[in-house]
Amino acid sequence: MAADNMEGDSLEDEIQHRIEAGEDDEDAFISVLGKDQPGRLRCYGGGITKSSLKKDEAVRQVQVEYDKKVLSLQNQMHSMQGILKMVL
Questions:
Q1: By CB atoms within 10 Å of each CB, which of 7, 22, 44, 52 scores lowest?
Q2: Rounded to whole angstroms, how far apart are CA atoms 25 and 3?
Q3: For the region Disordered, what residue ranges are annotated (predicted)?
């Protein structure tokens, strides 16, 4: 476990050293860790792609809209229940 941490620290140090030497952030990262593999995103693990991230965001947006609509309908229902109690 400590060896993994030391290697992570040395990679960070190497990236930082390259940035301080005037290298662009992204270029320093690529020069230390290599280019991304096609269809994959670094630091997200296997199976995650740009398109899957976009799809997840679209699903979250639909969920938020759905939640707002449900809340609105619940408020309308409570309002109608109050009116019904007054009538009966």
A1: 22
A2: 25
A3: 1-22
Cα–Cα distances in Å, from 46 out to 23, 41, 49, 58, 83?
Answer: 29, 8, 9, 21, 55
Distance CA 61, CA 57 (A): 6
Report residue 54 as tokens.
């976009």
The domain ranges of the chain are 1-35, 39-88
Of 56, 54, 26, nearest to 42 by C-alpha is 26
